[in-house]
Amino acid sequence: QFDGAQRLLTLRRGEIAVHTAADAQRRPFLVATAEGWLEALGTQFSVRQDDGRTLLAMRESRVRVRVRARSGAQHIIPAGRQVVFTAAAIGEPAALDGGALAWQRGMLLADAMRLHDFALELGRYRPGIVRCDPRVANVRVSGAFPITDTDTDAALVMLVSTYPVVARTRLGGYWLTLDAPE
User: What is the per-residue pLDDT across 137-165, written as a single tens digit (0 to 9) for each?
Assistant: First the structure.
């Protein structure tokens, strides 16, 4: 919603990379999520909407975060930091995780990531359903995996050639399960 008073983008799901520019009309650039609002203070950042939480990863400058709760808690997050917030509270800002912005370069970075969490991340970039069998859910995965629209299969080849896991597909590849080898 861009009008005379603001430039407002509503993120309903997924993730977006934002690169703002000065506005001749001096309208603030805002991103709304289910948990709150982010106001760009001349910057580059990414916003990820998950179930019940929003992740802000700062590349340049600063962003003001304000939660939806009555308290209206707000915090300014500087470059090189990231923060998770809910509708009620803003978490403690932390150093920017190198993997937080890697998706913009078509990569999924994992550093001792649980296979269960890896499957959830991979599922964001692959059509269909990606599941992880509980028997291998705690296998720790590290590496840089391609996640472009046409290349999640390459990530799977890398995964199964390196870790004790197999990829089983059904329904023409629509349903993928990461499983223990037999």
Answer: 999 999 999 988 666 888 999 999 999 99
Share of the chain residues as helix, strand and coil, in percent rounded to the nearest 5: 20, 45, 35
What's the pTM? 0.78
Number of other CB atoms surrounding residue 165 within 10 Å: 22
Cα–Cα dist 182/180, whole Å:
6
For residue 152, the 8-state DSSP code is H
Query: 147, 57, 55, 61: which is closest to 110 by C-alpha?
Result: 147
> pLDDT value at position 149?
63
Question: Of 108, 168, 163, which is closest to residue 140 (Cα–Cα)?
Answer: 163
> What is the signed CA dihedral for 52, 16, 101, 110, rounded to 10 degrees?
50
The sheet carrying 36-40 orders its strands as 7-10, 29-32, 36-40, 62-67, 74-78
Q: Smallest Cα–Cα separation from 132: which of 165, 88, 92? A: 165
Query: What size, in residues, is the chain?
Result: 182
